[in-house]
Amino acid sequence: MAPAHVVSRFRCSPMMTHGCLSRLSGALGVCVFVAIIRPAEAGPRAVVELFTSQGCSSCPAADKILGDLSRDPSIVALSMPIDYWDYLGWKDTLADNRFTARQKAYSQMRGDRDVYTPQVIVNGSAHVIGSDRAAIDNAVRDTKKNDDVMSVPVSMAVSGRQLNVSVASASANHPSDHGEVWICAISKAVPIAIGRGENGGREVTYHNVVRSWLKVGDWTGKAGTWAVPMENIAQDGVDAAVVYVQDGNRDRPGPMLGAAYTSLH
Description:
It is a single chain. By secondary structure, the chain is mostly beta strands. The chain has three helices and twelve strands. It is 14% helix and 36% strand. The longest helix has 14 residues, at 97-110. This is DUF1223 domain-containing protein. InterPro entries: DUF1223, Thioredoxin-like_sf.
């Protein structure tokens, strides 16, 4: 990034607080019913969210690391491009101000103002510099010390023109009994030729890019299943989906309780 915005050679931090950020849309037509779910096999150990920007010169190294993580079946890796660097000469073609709002909400929950790119949030709690692979691995290990983190089995399967999402009940050893269930439409790999700005002239591939983001229901500690119409997910370039259960709510996101990833075609 330009010298005025560089916190270190690894990360960039916005100059100003964004006080009016758009809220996430939660309307989604779904069918919901309570079901008995058999115990699932061990699921992923971490959800890794990368807040990145095409306008940040420190980000391509982090984007590459997220690509590596996306090939690890024990990791649910997500790219969430933000929009607050758009004024630096290049408007991010994948950015969504809902991701900016989510990044800020995480900061508010931690009680700090540490919002920067590239920033990784691991399991909804720890934040590290996105280009530091060792720090990401350590955060995955450390966040798993919380017994509730990634303790709820989640599964997802395509059936005709719907996506069936199942969330198991809370176990006696894991007392969390509430959370929100969200589904993300994913583009596995999006190559972008960046025309201007700090990465001008480069082509960067963004991995597991979130293209839409919809709430499907609330989890109350009991097993539940949701049938999500594919038309609420499918769009050009979408070839995978991620579902996660997270403590808290969209404005006050807490620890990740469980997640699943599936290819759509």
